[in-house]
Amino acid sequence: MTDVLPSWQEGPTREAIVGFVDAMSDGPDAVPAEERVAVFDNDGTLWTEKPMPTQLHYVVEQWAAAARADPSLAERQPYKAVVERDLGWLGGAIDKHYAGDDSDLKVMIGALLGVTAHKSAEEYHAAVAEFYATAQHQTLQRPYSAAVYQPMVELLRHLEDKGFASYIVSGGDRDFMRPITADYYGIPPERVVGSAIGMEYDAASNNVHYGTTLRFFDDGPEKPVRIWTRVGRRPILAAGNSNGDVEMLRYVQGHPRSLSLLVHHDDDTGRGDAPYDKGAERALAAADEHGFVRVSVKDDWDTVFVA
After folding, report:
1. Both ends of the chain: CA-CA distance in Å?
2. Which residues, at least 6 apart from 273, have a Cβ–Cβ distance to it below 8 Å?
3. I want to staple 105 with a disulfide (CB 3.0 to 4.6 A). Which of 69, 97, 156, 253 is the partner?
4. pLDDT digits (tens, 9 = 90+) for 106-127
5. Are 72 and 79 in contact (CB under 8 A)?
6. What integer pLDDT is reported at residue 40 of this predicted model?
7. Phi-psi bin for 126: left (phi > 0), alpha (psi -120 to 50), beta?
8. What is the pLDDT of residue 1?
9. 3-state per-residue secondary structure call for the chain
10. Per-residue pLDDT tens for 196-217?
11. Residue 50: which residues within 8 A CB-CB, separation 6 or more?
12. Cα–Cα distance between 54 and 47 in angstroms, integer?
């Protein structure tokens, strides 16, 4: 077994990745180290997002607690869905977003803002860290640390060995990801780019607190904007899996030399990663149009999850 990307099957996808990374980092055609920037989506790209994104699992627990404290909340969404255990409504809101309808997502975001309102950054960090320490993935029945894709972690390490700086660029909440990205992926918190709630400094407590409005939702066309504002240069490698990643995957193609990877969840062999195309229809179509390299979970990954 090779030392480079050992969980990847031999074939054109692995060859395309290894060949590109080698060409960008070694030899006469290598790009300067400062240009070796890679960006990765998180949910569905670095770890599983089914049956629901991890952050939604956390938020559902907070909504359930709020409904127990105030039963009147159960009369409206998304608390109604949580109380009635109608997780289909929650998942449907995300599917509708990827289909261009944000009506239910806006309802969810409104309730989501109540989870962090007026908390300090440290309070939220501690609450999320506790969730990660105790929560189990809903269908895999294992800690979320074991719902991470082993082949993608290997890719991150290979890029690191070749002088790349890798960033997470996700529609998920930036501060929900930061407590675990160093341990799970080897990516420090300052390289995590995600959606963000407005914050303000409170002089009395000498702390930073969350407000009650969403500052930006880091998805779709917002991703290239956030990459530029945070990184200050165009990456040369991107990896995503959904419709919300298309603009990011295309953005890197503005560099003279680039690689765009689209993870396709097509594994029907029962290894734990449920196959689905919903929410990725536009991305899969764009793969052919724009030359994204498809990463087949079924055919390209020998191992799916970290041990």
Report:
1. 17
2. 48, 50, 149, 265, 267, 297, 304, 305
3. 97
4. 898 888 899 999 999 999 999 9
5. no
6. 99
7. alpha
8. 46
9. CCCCCCCECCCHHHHHHHHHHHHHHCCCCCCCHHHCEEEECCECCCECCCCCCHHHHHHHHHHHHHHHHCHHHHHCCCHHHHHCCCHHHHHHHHHHHHCCCCHHHHHHHHHHHHHHCCCEHHHHHHHHHHHHHHCECCCCCCEHHHCEEHHHHHHHHHHHHCCCEEEEEEEEEHHHHHHHHHHHHCCCHHHEEEEEEEEEEECCCCEEEEEEEEEECCCCCHHHHHHHHHHCCCCCEEEECCHHHHHHHHHHHHCCCCEEEEEECCCCCCCCCCCCCCCCHHHHHHHHHHCCEEEEHHHHECCCECC
10. 999 999 999 999 999 999 999 9
11. 44, 139, 265, 273, 274, 276
12. 9
Query: For residue 293, is pLDDT > 60?
Result: yes
Q: How confident is the model at residue 86 (pLDDT cuts 50, 70, 90)?
A: confident
- In the predicted structure, residue 133 carries a pLDDT above the cut 80: yes
Confidence check: pLDDT of 250 > 50: yes
**Cα 57 from chain centroid?**
14
- Do 292 and 261 contact (CB within 8 A), yes or no? yes
Q: How confident is the model at residue 2 (pLDDT cuts 50, 70, 90)?
A: low
